Amino acid sequence: MGKTGVGRALARRYDVPVVEVDDIVEALLAVTLPEHLPEVHFWRTHPEAAGQAPESVVERQIAIAEALAPAIEAVVANHVGTDTPVILEGDYVLPGPATPGGPVRAVFLHEDDEAQVTANYLSREPDAGPQRHRARVSVLYGRWLAARARAAGVPVVAPRPWGNLAYRVAEVLGPARGEAAGRRHDGGPGRGRAAGDDGEAKTEHEVRSLHGEAGSPAT
Fold this sequence. Notes:
Blueprint: H1 3-14, E1 18-20, H2 21-31, H3 42-45, H4 54-81, E2 86-89, E3 104-110, H5 114-124, H6 132-151, E4 156-157, H7 165-173, E5 179-180, E6 192-193, E7 207-213
Parallel strand pairs: 1-2, 2-7, 3-4, 3-7
Antiparallel strand pairs: 5-6
Helix pairs in contact: 1-7, 4-6, 5-6
């Protein structure tokens, strides 16, 4: 299980939809030109750059993430402002919108073992063969993100062991508004949602963002 699988598990647990950052990227690509958002269009206009040194590719990934930040933060602000909880998941999520004790909670998944990341890619995409360059990029970018997250007080979770990853992430995030300890919503260990005075189960009035690098073979 990787970030996508965790996002889906959390969506079931909290009974909220998932918003994928990839969809935000595709929407921006569809309604803008390269001269409008050169960083966001970079991989389409410079596909050969993906073969550069891993450090150079990571610098480009960081630039893209920072260029996307205003759009992602606008989505977060809209969901917070309209009181519509959602799980936000993607590689370009930065820890900026999440502040300790604030309305946005976040967790970053980071696999720091390059050999494991290579094995994960090989399992998911066997026809491509070992993707060591891509794995190196993933690990370096993940380290940068993990450092940013820790500096901002945002938790960083190791994906392994995969079997209880969703549970560990939920424990780090804590209960949604209206949840009570000891109640179970998803059939697994931990907390579930408690019914409110109106008899309806309550969800958190928050956006939970989830970033992960190089999840398990079964995402």
